[in-house]
Design goal:
Elements lengths: L1 H29 L6 H19 L2 H9 L5 H17 L4 H24 L2 H23 L4 H6 L8 H23 L13 H14 L9 E3 L5 E4 L2 E6 L6 H19 L16 H15 L3 H15 L7 H8 L13 H20 L4 H16 L25 H20 L3 H6 L4 H10 L9 H9 L6 H14 L2
Parallel strand pairs: 1-3
Antiparallel strand pairs: 2-3
Helix pairs in contact: 1-2, 1-3, 2-5, 5-6, 8-14, 8-20, 9-10, 10-11, 11-16, 12-13, 14-15, 14-16, 16-20
Length: 488
């Protein structure tokens, strides 16, 4: 199959260049000197110009016309290359490069404005990002819904109507559980001294226990934790608050879920279109199952309680059960990444509605902060006191990730399905977690999800692993069982 061989040889170079671009972005958020931001923006734009030219090269169309799949792997590679080729041809090279340039600069502006609580300084930057993403969405949609078109970058085949229906189905049970928890006796809180160096050392130990391979990755600090890369170079970041070690530890476990997915894709798929996660929804199923259904389980919390006492001394909590309650405390806080499992999806629903309005033009950036604050007070019963606790808390919009947020909730839904199947298939998961050993659960994920990468479409990836189509039932049943026990 010379056409397929030529197609894949060309694509491997494109994939390698994309990894270089990703690593450049990682450096920008970790070690790049702040003064280098303008030059880095030009570098990112130049890389995007090269990548866009390769992704729209007319030879791709010829090879795709001539190539024929001989097996499932070839079929999946052709499917992904064709999807991206057709998609990228709709976006002008000028627009692709400008988006790369502006979002590279905007990330730094966001971080500085967030640190100084300067919403006025951030709004013009965000407005430019939204303007460009609206233009891109319109080009991709070709008369259809631009938000749906943008979502395809993160959840191929997904659309806003399906996401809205999912949220409508989830909201009543989530709200009922939340109200029950908030009407109950508050959970205890930990207290003590939690030095940054000790937090990072414990986070690294836990990352290793969850299967992260430090020979093919590293752990660093960033303003907003993230995972970057695929194959044999997959890096993670976390952040440290010396008053709240859970922030560091659970952010690390979350990013290890992402990173383990990428590290465990079958090496035969390295630098091919399917040599990475199937979608951000499937990716989030890993980070959320690692963080919550494994990391916040009563079994693992029992082990972590002892390990944190060894590291930090007295925690101000006298039992494993109270520690478990502290880890899973239900509170109406401002910050999405620190939200309990009941509030988390309500945070996503807010962002989903606002970003759809931004892309559709029914909400402008100048009105975003007021719209956020009003919606947050309604949904959470807490006023927003400052921009970093409100619309400026997340990095996503500053770097143009419009259509990304709903995949977090989709990932929770997928995680519910996967963990239900894992527990049915693998005896002793909780016994192992109680000993600080997540490997029975993470091993099931590796064998049933990770190794296949993007071989299958997102929903098919979950169905293949579990034997059933994805649904919200397993997640909601899990939440009702867990928080019904915590808040009887």
């Amino acid at each position: 199959m010379p056409a397929y061989d030529d197609l894949m040889a060309f694509q491997r170079t494109t994939e390698a260049l994309a990894q270089v671009a990703g690593r450049t972005g990682w450096d920008q958020e970790t070690f790049m000197p702040k003064g280098a931001a303008p030059q880095r923006a030009e570098e990112m734009a130049a890389l995007e110009e090269v990548l866009h030219a390769r992704r729209t090269d007319p030879r791709l169309g010829d090879w795709l016309e001539e190539a024929h799949a001989l097996d499932a792997v070839a079929d999946a590679n052709i499917r992904e290359i064709r999807r991206n080729y057709e998609r990228n041809r709709k976006v002008p090279a000028r627009l692709a490069a400008e988006l790369a340039r502006v979002t590279s600069l905007a990330q730094g502006h966001w971080a500085a404005a967030r640190a100084s609580e300067d919403a006025a300084a951030f709004r013009p930057v965000l407005a430019e990002v939204i303007r460009l993403r609206r233009e891109e969405g319109a080009a991709l949609a070709d008369g259809a819904d631009p938000y749906d078109a943008l979502m395809q970058d993160y959840e191929p085949g997904g659309n806003a109507a399906e996401m809205a229906a999912m949220f409508d189905a989830m909201r009543p049970r989530l709200v009922a559980l939340r109200e029950r928890a908030l009407d109950s006796e508050p959970a205890p809180t930990i207290s003590g001294t939690f030095p940054a160096a000790a937090q990072i050392a414990l986070a690294a130990e836990i990352a290793g226990r969850f299967g992260y391979d430090f020979q093919r990755g590293r752990l660093d600090l960033a303003v907003h934790p993230f995972s970057s890369g695929s194959g044999i170079d997959v890096r993670i970041t976390t952040r440290v608050d010396e008053a709240d070690p859970f922030n560091c530890l659970y952010s690390t476990i979350h990013e290890v879920g992402h990173a383990s997915y990428e590290q465990n894709v079958d090496p035969v798929h390295l630098l091919t279109p399917i040599g990475q996660g199937a979608s951000m929804g499937v990716h989030e199923s890993q980070s959320r199952s690692y963080e919550n259904q494994m990391g916040r389980s009563e079994a693992f919390c029992g082990w972590l309680y002892g390990r944190m006492r060894d590291t930090f001394g007295d925690l101000g909590i006298g039992s494993e059960r109270d520690f478990y309650r502290a880890v899973n405390a239900v509170r109406s806080g401002h910050i999405r990444t620190e939200a309990d499992e009941l509030h988390y999806n309500l945070h996503i629903m807010l962002r989903f509605d606002l970003e759809r309005a931004l892309i559709h033009g029914t909400l402008e950036v100048d009105d975003l902060e007021a719209a956020w604050n009003e919606r947050f007070a309604h949904d959470f019963g807490v006023p927003v006191d400052r921009p970093s606790n409100g619309f400026m808390q997340d990095v996503h919009w500053s770097i143009g990730l419009m259509g990304y947020f709903p995949t977090y909730s989709l990932g929770n839904l997928y995680a519910g399905c996967l963990m239900q199947a894992a527990r049915a298939a693998v005896p002793g998961i909780d016994d192992a977690l109680a000993a600080g050993d997540p490997s029975p659960a993470t091993g099931w994920m590796r064998n049933n999800v990770h190794q296949f990468g993007a071989l299958r479409r997102p929903a098919d990836t979950i169905a293949h692993a579990t034997g059933a189509a994805p649904s919200a039932g397993p997640l909601l049943d899990y939440l009702e069982a867990k928080f019904g026990d915590l808040y009887p």
